[in-house]
Amino acid sequence: LTVALGQIGNFLAYTAVPTVLVTPLGALGVPFGSILASYLLKEKLNILGKLGCLLSCAGSVVLIIHSPKSESVTTQAELEEKLTNPVFVGYLCVVLLMLLLLIFWIAPAHGPTNIMVYISICSLLGSFTVPSTKGIGLAAQDIFHNNPSSQRALYLCLVLLAVLGCSIIIQFRYINKALECFDSSVFGAIYYVVFTTLVLLASAILFREWSNVGVVDFLGMACGFTTVSIGIVLIQVFKEFNFNIGDLNKPNMKTD
């Protein structure tokens, strides 16, 4: 139930604010989940994990401060114009070509031994899932209106739903394959960074959300995203380390 509510909230967020803000902030579930698990499930959260939680929250604040303050695409007509833009169509063709190479040639041979193969497949599919989610929200606004564009909005929404469903199914398949072969903590940390980077790239090409962002805000968002990524790595990758702040007070015993 809570996962379903979270996904509904995520969907509403994509329809209300720029993608460049929503996607990186999705990482806040990791520090909050780690903190709750340490209290409710008595899981151990070492000093590096606590530092990672702090960095994730601090980076998120920086992202919020420097993110675009308004949407670049707010209507179905603008969305259709962006979807048919030659630059975005060319980008999708490149992504599809890379996915075909990874899924049918590279993954069968190198997937079980190279973690970046499965991560690349799942992350490239983010180029379809997140823009589709945002597009569905925009198209749905016109479906129930009694005007000539409502029929086109329905068709567009159905197409985007099909793309979204196929992308999610393929992502789940390769995420499960990755978790069978690699450590979930390492996979989760690398996957967040690569997935978010490619989603932001796809959203920047489609929605042009960076067009009104100044140099200072761009650098601020880059620093915020880097800080959040470092925090996620500290929480995920080093969570098994038996190290806490009490170890700093122990005397250094030297032996001959």
From TrEMBL:
Localization (cell): Membrane
Membrane topology of the entry: Multi-pass membrane protein
The protein's UniProt keywords, in alphabetical order, are: Membrane, Transmembrane, Transmembrane helix
Q: Known InterPro entries for this protein?
A: EmrE-like, Mg_trans_NIPA
A single GO cellular-component term from the record reads: membrane
Database matches in Pfam families: Mg_trans_NIPA (PF05653)
Note whether Transmembrane helix occurs among the keywords: yes
* Record-level Gene Ontology MF annotations: magnesium ion transmembrane transporter activity
Q: What is its main location?
A: membrane
Report which superkingdom the organism of origin falls in.
Eukaryota
Give the transmembrane region(s): 20-41, 48-68, 88-108, 153-174, 186-206, 218-238
Q: Which family does it belong to?
A: Belongs to the NIPA family.
Q: What is this protein called?
A: NIPA1 protein
